[in-house]
Amino acid sequence: MAIQDIYPTALRLLGRPVLVVGGGRVAARRAKGLLDAGARVTVVAPEATAALRELADAGLLTWEPRTYRSEDVDGVWFVQTATGDPMVDKLVASDAEAQRVWCVNASDHEASAAWTPAVAVVDDVKIAVNAGGDPRRAMALRDAVATALESGDLPLRRRRAHRGSVALVGGGPGDTGLITVRGRRLLGQADVVVADRLGPRELLNELAPDVRVIEVGKTPGHHPVPQAEINRILVEEALQGHRVVRLKGGDPYVLGRGGEEAEFCRRHGVEVEVVSGVTSAISVPAAAGIPVTHRGLAKGFSVVTGHEELSEVPARADHTVVLLMGVGQLRESASALGKAGLPGDTPVGIVENGYLPDQRVTIGTLGTIADQAEAAGVANPAVIVIGDVVRVSPFAPSHFKTADYSTTSPNKPRTSTTRVLTP
User: Fold this and answer.
1) What is the CA radius of gyration of the chain?
2) Does the residue 4 lie in any domain?
3) Looking at the record, which segments are called Disordered (predicted)?
4) 72-128 pLDDT, tens per residue?
5) Which stretches does DSSP call E strand in 212-299?
6) What does DSSP say about strands 300-304 and 319-324: parallel, antiparallel, or unpaired?
7) d(CA 115, CA 250)
């Protein structure tokens, strides 16, 4: 049988009687697949695997513990033969052919009237691959296509009308490789993307031409699209039947107002999914080699967005403070922590544009960092890390190193285009 002789199609077997001849592992796999399709399965075989017997005992299929008879094909819609005996399989296939019933002959794929493809399911898409009768090749191709669909490299987007929904997707700190697989897949399915200024912006260039991108990005002190308007856009687009992705930087639920958006969608009857992202509060410091906790240095951390909240966090160098979008208030924040008792020589690191080609790291102390940042022209987006964990960074100057933390070898400043400012 040549591949040109194959007419690909999909059978709807819900409630229809089908026959499986054989009781081994192949027959068990095929019976399970037919049951998943909703078929009424009868298995004819003198012996059956434990898996088949369990299905029969549960009443999910009928097992006839005997040899095959020609009348077994009477009235069935589909036949799968997998006895392991080519002569029996050939007889079953011949009987099915005589009654114009499609039959898959597991013993002779060349003579088989039908082939069983390698199958995978991704969301509501079922992938079936035939590869010239080579099952291993078909499975490899199936897995590759399924992986591409799951990762968003191939589009899962529907083209016919469907019920609208909203997905709040955390895109991570900006590097396209740091969005989750689920987030990437939903982005590939989107009809409308409501995008922040931060996050993996390059992925927007990969969207289909007819996908609408609505820009709602904010900068510190400048919100051209108020949050109430963003909420309205999400619901309005979803109620029109669109799949909406709200693409955010970091994580939707970490100082991202994702909870407000989800609540608004649910209140208006819109299905909403939240896809966590890699929050910049942790990932951006990591891009500069700064852990927010480290044995011997810090066991906990706080994430804040402004100097007003600093009075509520522990003012100790062994408790890491992470400031998001805090460049504009850096001087006030440093002063507030100093007044709360944090020593002026506490290390501070600022990471601008984490993970991006123009990433820059500025390292100083609580007493010097505001002047350093001003002199260097530090700007958002940036993450500020305050505490002894900054000492671990390979960008930290040598005199910041101490013996008070565990490392397998002494840290050495790394050669980099990243500018490091020190006192």
Assistant:
1) 31
2) no
3) 400-423
4) 999 999 999 999 999 999 999 999 999 999 999 988 877 888 888 888 888 778 888
5) 212-215, 243-248, 271-275
6) parallel
7) 47
d(CA 240, CA 270): 11
Domain that holds residue 192: 165-278
Please state, in angstroms and rounded to a whole number, the distance separating the CA atoms of residues 350 and 330.
10
User: Who's near 149: CB < 8 A, 6+ residues apart?
Assistant: 122, 125, 127, 156, 185
Active site residues: 196, 218
Q: Are residues 289 and 204 in the same domain?
A: no
Regions of the chain with pLDDT less than 50: 1, 406-423
H or E element in which residue 330 lies = helix 330-339
**What's the pLDDT at 43?**
97
Burial 44-78 (b: 16+ CB within 10 A, else e): bbeebbeebbebbeeeebebbeeebeeebbeebbb
Q: Which residues pair with 69 in a beta bridge?
A: none
CA dihedral 79, 82, 86, 88 (to 10 degrees): -60
The residue among 247, 278, 309 that closes a domain is 278
172: CATH: 3.40.1010.10
